[in-house]
Amino acid sequence: MNAIREAGVNKKVIGVSRFSNKKMELDLQIAGIETIAGDLLDEIFLEQLPDCKNIIYMAGNKFGTAGNEHFTWVMNAYLPGRVAEKYKASRIVIFSSGNIYPFLPTDCQGANEQLKPSPIGEYAQSCLGRERVFEHFSIKNQTPMLIYRLNYAVDLRYGVLLEVAKSIFHGKPIDITTGYVNVIWQGDANRYALRSLLHCESPAKKLNITGPEIISIERLAHTFGKIMNRQVNIIGKSAPTALLNDASHSFELFEKPEVELDQIIEWTAQWVMSGGEELNKPTHFQEREGNF
User: Fold this and answer.
1) CA-CA distance, 3 to 140, in Å (whole number)?
2) Mean of all residue pLDDT scores within the chain
3) Helices then strands, each counted (H, E), the chain
4) What is the pLDDT of residue 124?
5) Which of the listed CATH numbers 2.60.40.2550, 3.40.50.2000, 3.30.470.20, 3.40.50.720 matches domain 39-155+184-212+246-257?
6) Minimal CA–CA distance to 55: which of 19, 94, 17?
7) Other C-beta atoms lying within 10 Å of the C-beta of residue 41
8) What is the mean pLDDT of residues 163-175?
9) DSSP string, 91-124
10) What is the pLDDT of residue 135?
11) 36: confidence class by pLDDT, cuts 50, 70, 90
12) In this structure, what DSSP letter does residue 197 have?
């Protein structure tokens, strides 16, 4: 909405969700966003939604998949077909996940968009299912789409950096079995998502979204320890592989993220030390068997 106001254009933004968190709905409304509360799996509700030229599709399920696999599959692989048919005349950016790729050696650049998916576990498999269903309808209806493969977005209240910083600050050990990750500042990820609407294609274009660095968790822990003046307790041994993405193509389209890693680290350390608000949603970035 800030960008719309600065551009001086007349645009409406609509947020559709169950809005189980009513504060989130209120925050969106205060920001000038129209909200529509309901269940996208309800066919009547879905069909009554207004037509929109541009869609950012973020519906899905991850945490709580174990023991509730059927719901993850219906959200991640069935619902996309219903939405794709409803919005066949729209441009659609589909949030997906780097989890659709295999684990790769930590000394490589990471998976690029040409690498064949090899998802581990039912959550990641259902994410690939979401992609394939949207791909089908992109071809069938010639709907321009972009599949937005994101990992891992961070802000001060959520993410890999927050989890490592909290552990260091509270004297907890850092397990480095999953020894390397990519991250991107949430604001940059949001900016890329909106700009991706200009790059939708049929068949659907695929685009990796993350930061340019391959981050060592051990080095990150020691950096936080130095800033916070805390002892660092490292346990485990770094595995030779990790879930790593090469987002070089996104940098060609959008340039590199505006917020650099060193800045995010400094912000996060200060946030944790000052007792800043948290979303209390662990990333489970350490998970190597695909169990969410």
Assistant:
1) 34
2) 96
3) 11, 14
4) 97
5) 3.40.50.720
6) 94
7) 15
8) 97
9) EEEEEEEGGGSPPEETTS--B-TTSPP---HHHH
10) 98
11) very high
12) G
